[in-house]
Amino acid sequence: MAQHLLRIGHAALSYLGADGLPGISRIAHGHDGEGVSLTLISALAPHVAGLAANPDCALMLGEPGGRGDPLTHPRLMIRAKAVLAPGADRATLRVIWLNQHPKAKLYVDFSDFAFVRLRPVSGILNAGFGKAFVLAPENLRIDVE
């Protein structure tokens, strides 16, 4: 179930803003060649300054859908450290990202956009009522073929 949720193309990212107050943003979500969560963000977004000041963050993957109580739908919370990808990785990450998010071709090359790896620290998989599991970092990477 965690592998399925890790493949969702968007997530909610929580962070501390540069002013020390909490914030949350919807982000595009993917993974790098090693299965580590990845996003592409604009320097204009408020979470960039927050992540630069404090790289501790959290992701929420999974959306309530269909019928019934939304709290019974699967979701995955990942505690992570945000790490700006070095410029040397940009060309490789660009290819990987566009395979996952083809519509990003419209803006991936804008100068204010950068790739950020969200290195997992721990996680909680809630697979439905009474089905919660603590996950280690090695269980929070996408299995890459």
Overview of the molecule:
This protein has 145 residues and is of the alpha+beta class. The protein has helices spanning 2-6, 46-53, 90-100, and strands at 10-16, 22-28, 30-31, 37-42, 56-61, 75-84, 113-126, 132-135. The chain has a single domain, classed as Electron Transport, Fmn-binding Protein, Chain A (Pnp Oxidase, Chain A, Roll). The chain has three helices and eight strands. Strands 1, 2, 3, 4, 5, 6, 7 and 8 form an eight-stranded antiparallel β-sheet that branches. Strand 1 (10-16) and strand 2 form a beta hairpin.
Question: Short description, anyone?
Answer:
With 145 residues, the chain is α+β, with helices and mostly antiparallel strands. The protein is 17% helix and 39% strand. β1 (10-16) and β2 (22-28) form a beta hairpin.
